């Protein structure tokens, strides 16, 4: 879209067809894009992208961002695989994928019993969206993995290019648990990129240093190709000064790694998983859905330009 962002009525400018761009016109166009998926085809990346969504702080929006970004990309034409690497199984729930104990899952993949393709299920959110679910069996994996051969790279081995070619996916998102244990290390070794969701709250930056140090350790010893490519600010509450302070602090520190789109705090976003949906299908016209689609579009545009960071 060619319209200038953040227009105010005072600086509304004529659009190419003679209409005037106003904030309402801009919002209406965004809503149209979400409500009519066929109106927007997102560009394919120059190469398959594997992103680990990590932050050892709990409840910052890792799972919400994983499923909604994945749905945004998939609904608009890209093939996406979500790997639920959290024994809580929240991503599986949000994508309406069966994850009762005993279901073929990422646990069996990690212990080498089945392949990624055997465990991947198509989500009802989009035919382009696969999910490898997590069952409660994964809770024991953190300990079981300790004594296994190549314990840090078991997910990487499972995500080999033949397996991913079989599914034909453009994007892989790995949803991590809120810890820096072996499951998260496996995710960091298997990916080229880390996406860090940061909540626009007071303690948001606490613990980030520890995450970045762990990423550096993985870079140094296990996966030199790894980089923090994307930071997404979540749960932004425009009524508080604090949200703006956190936003500018994060932008000041991480620059263009931070997506321009900020995800607002929105009841619709938090309600959607209760209906086994992403917000993009639960309430496509909501601010939460539009923001996640905008963020997905930014990610897709960076990927299509062959530059993961801006
Ligand atoms: N933009 C938002 N607006 C309102 N609520 C949100 C938003 N994003 C996430 N939430 C809610 O915040 C809670 C935590 O989000 P989420 O589960 O995505 O975080 P997480 O980092 O994956 O948590 P965990 O560390 O437990 O895995 C959930 O109840 C979710 O519905
Ligand atoms: Mg989670």
Task: Give the key terms.
310 residues, alpha/beta, Rossmann fold, 7-stranded mixed sheet, 9 strands, binds adenosine-5'-triphosphate, binds magnesium ion
Query: How many helices does DSSP assign?
Result: 14
Mean pLDDT, to the nearest integer, reads: 90
**Which small molecules are bound?**
adenosine-5'-triphosphate, magnesium ion
| CATH-defined topology | Rossmann fold
Instruction: State which percent range the strand residues make up.
Output: 5-15%
Second-tier CATH architecture? 3-Layer(aba) Sandwich
Q: Strands of the largest sheet, in order across it?
A: 5-6-4-7-3-8-9
Compressed to H and E, one letter per element, the order equals EEHEHEHHHEEHHHEHEHEHHHH
For the record, what CATH class applies? Answer: Alpha Beta
Pfam families: AAA_31
Function: May play a role in septum formation.
InterPro entries: AAA_dom, DNA_Partitioning_ATPase, MIP_CS, P-loop_NTPase
Family: Belongs to the ParA family.
């Amino acid at each position: 879209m060619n319209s200038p962002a953040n227009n105010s009525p005072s600086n509304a400018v004529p659009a190419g067809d003679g209409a005037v761009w106003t904030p309402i016109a801009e919002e209406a166009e965004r809503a149209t894009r979400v409500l009519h998926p066929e109106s927007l085809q997102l560009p394919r990346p120059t190469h398959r992208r594997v992103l680990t969504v990590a932050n050892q702080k709990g409840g910052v929006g890792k799972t919400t961002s994983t499923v909604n970004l994945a749905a945004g990309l998939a609904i608009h034409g890209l093939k996406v695989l979500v790997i639920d690497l959290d024994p809580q199984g929240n991503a599986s729930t949000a994508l309406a994928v069966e994850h009762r104990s005993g279901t073929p899952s990422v646990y069996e993949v990690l212990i080498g019993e089945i392949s990624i393709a055997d465990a991947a299920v198509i989500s009802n959110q989009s035919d382009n969206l696969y999910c490898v679910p997590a069952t409660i069996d994964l809770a024991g994996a953190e300990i079981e993995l300790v004594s296994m051969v190549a314990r840090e790279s078991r997910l990487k081995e499972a995500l080999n290019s033949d397996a991913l070619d079989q599914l034909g996916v453009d994007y892989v998102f790995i949803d991590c648990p809120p810890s820096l244990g072996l499951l998260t290390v496996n995710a960091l070794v298997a990916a080229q990129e880390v996406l860090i969701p940061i909540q626009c709250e007071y303690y948001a930056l606490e613990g980030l240093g520890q995450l970045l140090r762990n990423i550096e350790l993985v870079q140094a010893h296990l996966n030199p190709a790894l980089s923090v490519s994307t930071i997404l600010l979540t749960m932004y509450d425009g009524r508080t000064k604090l949200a703006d302070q956190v936003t500018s602090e994060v932008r000041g520190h991480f620059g263009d790694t931070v997506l321009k789109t900020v995800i607002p705090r929105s009841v619709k976003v938090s309600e959607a998983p209760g209906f086994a949906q992403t917000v993009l299908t639960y309430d496509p016209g909501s601010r939460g859905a539009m923001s996640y689609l905008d963020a997905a579009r930014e990610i897709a545009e960076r990927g299509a330009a062959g530059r993961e960071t801006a």
